[in-house]
Structure formats: structure tokens, C-alpha cells
Amino acid sequence: MGLIFLYAQVTLFTGCAPKSKQVVIWHWMADRKDAFRSLSDKYFDETGVRAKFVLCAPSERYAKKIRFAAVTSRLPDIYGMLGGVWEFSNFINSGYALDLSDELNTNGGEWREQFLGGVISENEFLPGNEQRVKPGIYGISIDVNNIQMVYNKDLFKAAGLDPEAPPKTWKEFIEYGKRLKQAGIPAFVSGWRELWLIDCFTSNYALNLMGEKKVLQTMKGFISYTAPEWLRVLKLFEEMRDAGILAEDITALDNKKAEKIFANSQAAMAFNGSWCVNVYREMNPGLNYAVFLPPKLSSNYPMKIWGGVGAPFVVNAKSKNKKEAIDFLKWLTAEKQQTYLARFTYNLPVNKYAIFYAPSKLKDFADDMDSVVHPKLLFGYEKSNVTEELDKGVQDIIRGQRTPAEVARYVDTIKLILDRYRGFER
User: Fold this and answer.
1) Domains in the chain, number
2) Is 3 inside any structural domain?
3) Which pick of 95, 219, 231, 339 has the fewest CB atoms within 10 Å?
4) Reported pTM
């Protein structure tokens, strides 16, 4: 009897003891490594469940990682989703994304109620969606963002410009750029090797000039890209080029290089997102800069800015730890953890109660969240092939290789072909 008792004691305190639960999360946010580690430790202390973050950067490498994992059925319990709506829908329709609608609505919508307006809808597929996804909410984002202009106050002052008065109109923007150039200061930089940033800039001015209705009509094929309004938008890039205000080789700069140029005071203005607050803080803590809305081209419609939620965290519907994964996401998006993330990573929180505790520079971006627009909020998408050709065309305009009219005609041709063969893109 004593031997049996001794064996039981040994078994209890050896490797045969049950292991604690673990939720594995994949993401590309390597800059948040320390924050995620701290939160993981805190969650383990509170619940006994380990949240293991596996970070893979850069984002292009991460996107390949999750695609391969989906093909080989090796996706983790939770993963960050990159890619457009069509790629996301492929993951969902393949059974790799759990519908979180019921969880968000339980207890009178207690979880849903914590989020800023629009956060949930950006990861929601509505009835009759073109992707043929079962209606539902398939992701939860942990931050929001928007893309605006930033300017270096010290460089403005050095060029004889008022450091408290950034340009408000397109005409002023070009004039300011010329003043900066005359003072020997590069005027404007952005990571326009990356097509999505060009798309943001182009869309801002299309919406400002022609409004949401006409932009949607263009997506649906009722308005041509050779229309006068679209040609005017494309000519903006020609005007910047001819005024000499663009950073050298701007179409060869990825966003990280562009951020480094601005952080090192080698350009006076930049087009970048709210995440830049954290980036600039790390690159140059003493940088004296401020945020402003892109200067208006027209008074016809308000200036909209691209933005919305960050890439969603998706619960793998084939995971054996779905309940633990959902519980962790609820904890991660609660006010206390969101406040910590905002203060530690300098990204805008999705929790509406945590926004009040965001650092001051972030609040400058947060103040303009009511101007945010996104294709999904417009209930329409342009075909990705068409958008890609438009953005590549902008690069060619900047390089002087094609005219706005030539780009517009080519984009119309691509769109016509795709409209005839609707299955081509998918």
C-alpha cells in the first residue's frame, strides 16, 4: 500500500502532470514583441492559459506563411489575416475562420458594445456578398488606424513657413512644396513603391473631387477612368513631379525607408498612417512634427481619409482550442489591455473606453476618425487587377513614362476585359 501511495506522489509531481492550456497566435507585428510577451505573461497569471505569440516579419513573408499553413492544415488557434477581401473569403470558405457573431452578441452584446463604431462591420460579411461567404463576423481587430499627412515644424520654420499652419488646399500644398525646395529642403516623401499607399492617396482625392456616389459608379463600370474628374486626380501626381516637390526616387521607396527619411528630418512632409507615431518615436524621439488632413483639392465634398481597423485576428474554426482562443480575444480587447497596448505600442485602440488614455500624438490622428472611409464602408470594391494597374500607372506618371490620359485609357481597357470575364480575378 505504501508503494502505491509513493508511486502516486511521484506521478503527481513529474512530467505526467497535466499541462496548462496554450493558445498559439501568429502575427507579423514584430515591433510589438515585448508588449505581446508582457500581455502573455499577465494572461497566464490570471487564467493559467498560456498565449504564445509567434511573430513573423516582414508582412510579405508572413502572408506566404499563412497561405502555406492553410494548404497544409497547420494554421494555429489564432492568426492575423493579411490580404484583400477575396483572399480572406478563401480562408473562410475553406473552414479556417470561425464566425464570432454569437459571441459578440451574447449577454446583450456585451463584447460588441466595447468597440468603436465601424470596427466590427469591417470584418463582417453581409447577406448576398459577392464572395459567397456565409453572413457573419470572422475577425476581431486590436487596433484602428487612419492615414493622413505629417509635417516637420522645424523644417517649415527654416523655409520661412508658419510652423503652426500646414497647407489646407492643394494649391497651398504645391506652393509650400516649392518654398521648401527653394530653401534646399526636400518637400514630400511617402513609400510609393508600395501600391496600397498610392491607392490611399488617389482615393482620398477622388472622393474629395467627385464624392462617394461617383467613385462607386466607377467601380461598377458606369463611369470611365477617362472622365475629367479621374484625369484631374491623376494629374495631381504630374503636378507634384513638375513642381519638383517629390522625394528622389519616391516610387522606389518602401514605407519603412520613407519613414526613416522623414524621421531624420530629410523631408518636410509625409503621407503616412497613425502607426507612424510609434515608428518616429523609435527612430527619432525628439522629432518635432504634427498631423494634418490632406489638403483639399475641391470644396465639392469633404476630404476623406483612408483608414479603419488593423488586420483582424481570426480564430481558426478547425482549432481544438476555440473556446480558449475566443476567451483570449475578449481579454485582449478589453479596456485595460487596450489601454496598455495604446501606451506601449502607440497604436490607436479599438476599445472605445481606452481611446481616452492614448498618447497625445495619437489623439491627433484619433480626432479625425470621423473622416475615415474604407472600400468596405462604401459597400463596394474595385477589382484588384484594376486598382493595381491604376496604381502602377501613377508610378509611371511620376517617372514621366506615361501621361494621365494614357494611364486612364489602359485602366479602362483592363476593366472592360475583366467585366467580360468575371471569373478571371478569382
Assistant:
1) 2
2) no
3) 95
4) 0.76
